[in-house]
Amino acid sequence: AQKITQTQPGMFVQEKEAVTLDCTYDTSDPSYGLFWYKQPSSGEMIFLIYQGSYDQQNATEGRYSLNFQKARKSANLVISASQLGDSAMYFCAMREGVSWGKLQFGAGTQVVVTP
Amino acid sequence: DTAVSQTPKYLVTQMGNDKSIKCEQNLGHDTMYWYKQDSKKFLKIMFSYNNKELIINETVPNRFSPKSPDKAHLNLHINSLELGDSAVYFCASSQSPDRGNTEAFFGQGTRLTVV
Asked: 20 to 30 A Cα–Cα from B94, which one of A49, A93, B54, B60?
């Protein structure tokens, strides 16, 4: 069964607007971590932000913030003030506590930022 | 300084050949991984090594054999290449999961094309 679900295969957003990328997850492990990665067209995987299951506050890193709703098992990524360079594929991933660091990825959301 | 480097970046080879992809990390991490990204961009873990010891071996054909000569290196050898092996292979590294946040740092990927 798919553990990470990203329901938006692609979206367009205008420059300077905010965009929310959806991610829901499924686990029965009380200890887990949630990650977002960016993959631009050049192909590398860039770590953006991390949220631990026991973290009380939502994670933020510059223009990236994670809207963590534990009861709903969702970990949406919010990118504020989109820039053209934000155009990329975005992956949500989860590490479950006993999995020795194994990341399980969602299918990704392709974001295109338009001028 | 490149944190996780893998070579080669591109690899085109004929069916039936044997090939290797090398990976090195200079982050001092003790856990390394191989991930495969298919043509639909889906990322899936193949192997994980912790302190040179195989920890995770997902259902990967035994034509794929990882080798970790030391903590900083994890190479991937593939025997008898098949058309279906064409994909992008990512090496990654992270701290041990028992050390808290374990974001994985990825290499730039190796695009393998089997013809």
From this structure: B60
The 10s digit of each residue's pLDDT in B31-65 is 999 999 999 999 999 999 888 888 888 888 999 99
Q: Which of A42, A45, A49, A54 to mutate to test the interface with B (most CBs of B within 10 A)?
A: A45
Q: Is B109 within 8 Å of chain A by CB? A: yes
- Comparing alpha-carbon positions, the chain A residue that sits nearest to B47 is A102
B31: contact with A, CB 8 A cutoff:
yes
Per-residue pLDDT reduced to its tens digit, A62-105: 999 999 999 999 999 999 999 999 999 999 999 887 666 788 99
User: CB within 8 A of A79, min separation 6: which ones?
Assistant: A18, A19, A21, A63, A64, A86, A111
d(CA B79, CA B81): 6
